[in-house]
């Protein structure tokens, strides 16, 4: 099996495992639960990741990589409505491709706990979310915090709903518009296509 093909399989396993962990939490999720979700036997899953700890470490590493990739896309944008819209678009696109990973990334900022327990500390994932929006978690106003929480909660829940691919792609524009509206950036004169530019 080529290294690239194996990496694609491992990435798919990690995303599906992340979705299970986001729904159930680390303490309530067994290796068998994850194996069932990814369509492998327990032994088959352990062939890819030798233990639950190895799976968690791989998830934590993958979350770091995803966070870095997302931050790179918006790093040079100044704080404000344009950056918020671009962050929303970047998160929506990431959620369409990696719903489980994005849910695990967003949920700690909303729940106050990491679905990965100590393997991906809440500070790590929450820090990435606030850095994406160029907000310091303690400096954001109460209104901003509520708006951000509503936008991220909606995106996390829809990520976990994992509708079929055709519907998900069709939802992209609505997701971007709705999350931007939740952040208080409604632009009635602008089309959704403007948000994607």
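-> sequence recovered:
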């Amino acid at each position: 099996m080529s290294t690239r093909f194996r990496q694609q399989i491992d990435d798919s396993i990690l995303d599906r495992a992340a979705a299970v962990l986001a729904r159930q939490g680390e303490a309530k999720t067994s290796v068998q639960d994850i194996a069932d979700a990814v369509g492998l036997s327990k032994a088959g899953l352990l062939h890819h990741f030798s233990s639950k700890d190895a799976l968690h470490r791989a998830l934590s590493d993958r979350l770091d990589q995803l966070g870095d990739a997302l931050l790179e896309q918006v790093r040079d944008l100044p704080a404000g409505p344009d950056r918020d819209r671009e962050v929303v678009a970047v998160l929506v696109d990431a959620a369409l491709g990696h719903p489980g990973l994005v849910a695990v990334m967003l949920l700690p900022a909303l729940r106050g706990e990491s679905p990965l327990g100590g393997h991906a500390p809440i500070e790590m994932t929450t820090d990435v979310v606030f850095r994406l929006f160029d907000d310091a978690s303690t400096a954001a106003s109460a209104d901003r915090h509520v708006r951000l929480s509503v936008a991220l909660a909606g995106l996390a829940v829809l990520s976990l709903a994992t509708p079929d691919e055709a519907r998900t792609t069709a939802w992209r524009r609505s997701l971007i518009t709705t999350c931007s509206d939740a952040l208080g950036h409604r632009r009635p004169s602008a089309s959704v296509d403007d948000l994607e530019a």
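Confidence is low (pLDDT under 50) at residues 119-123.
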